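As described in the Methods, two query proteins were run sequentially through the folding procedure within a single session, without resetting any intermediate state between them. The first query and its resulting structure tokens are shown here.
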Amino acid sequence: MAAPPEKTLKNLAGKWVMNKTLSDDTDRILQMQGVGWFYRRAIALATITLTVTEYTKDDGVTHIDISQVATPGGITSVENRTLDWEYHEHTDKIFGKVKGKSRWVKLGEVDDDEFLKTGWDDVEGEHVQSYVESDGGGWTADQVWGFEILDGKRYYVRHVVVRKGDDWKLARLVYDYQK
């Protein structure tokens, strides 16, 4: 189902399921990130569910913790985002060792990639930007999160740009709200 109006980037808590009809194919991006054929095939066939917890600590920094599960298959991944624009290291089952940073951002502050800045429902407000570098894989992933109106309905969406050397791939990931 589309995102209810009370769901915002400051209130993402709940379950979100990737809408594969509205999302772009991720196979080329996953291949660029060094994900093997078996995992890519399993991800392509699976239902991807994000369980999101969002909170702000006493220091005022927002944290968005996401448990990602692909079913059937039970492939899991954890995304813990600390919106302080400082690098945090993480070892991921799928992507290996990475370091990433996240922040609240106005679209005008996002670097020169127009894909990351366009299509959003709210062009004036803050979005989430997440930037990840692979340790040894040679790739980077830059994401901006927000909401878009698609087919007259409002959805949680991520615009993703993955770069490796001179090559780059784009994808729009669209999520249905579950509860």
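Immediately afterward, the second query was submitted; its sequence and tokens are:
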Amino acid sequence: MTVEQDGDLGAYPLQRQLFSNVRLYIQHWMWRRELGYILHPRISVDQGTKIVDIACGNCAWLIDAAREYPQAQFDGFDISPAQFPHSGWLPKNIKLSTMDIFKPIPEELRGNYDVVHVGLLVFVVDKDDPVPILDNLLALLKPGGYLQWDEADYAGSHVKIPESSVPYAALQELKDNLQNLLKATKQSNFEWVRKLGPMFQRRGLDVLDDTFRSIPDDIAQPWTLQHMLAAAEVINVIHQKTGKGTEWWNLYDRAVAEVEQGASVRMGMVSVVGQKPE
């Protein structure tokens, strides 16, 4: 299969529908399990602390954070409200609105937050340059505030099998083809993820932690399942934009058969925490 002919996937190569939400919940719970925290232990949260989650999606992180820190006030922003839960289901200390993080931060939000959280923008950043987003995140922070950026090391994604008899050729091909297509779409090799810590430092932040965690074997299956859900979303986008989904779906079905026999896809977790100078 040649992927060069399948075109530009646009600004956001995933979807915002029912199964997308399922994937985001699975993803959130695995991240929380492996990191061991919602907010890094060095981040202070007191009565009235103002916390914002950027690109909040279906608010899985926000809802858990609001439960863990009921004394804080949470705002969530996303470019689209399509995955927001109904307001009646949200904790009282959460407010939601829309924001394009690539555009200038509104004056009333500048320097407004004690903590900024952001995560999983790897398919949003173009040309290996997250600095425009980083600068806007810093604009939201009060002096002395904290920034926590949790990101997937997509450049390091790889296929792993539990024993040599497990087939994986189709899963490897699917992973490689999707990765090459996304590299072309975003004009990125995604290596910026492992460089977030130094980027924080160059923007004057005191880096409190720069963590990388590999995906352990005991969550190989759910991690791979959420990856396959994401792959299906990308293939749907390819089909909608080009009408060339048939060959992709044939490869996908072969890869699913290998996943059912134990083949897995892994990519590490990066979490960087910085503090803005007073």
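The chain has a mean pLDDT of 92. We note this only descriptively and draw no conclusion about the first query from it.
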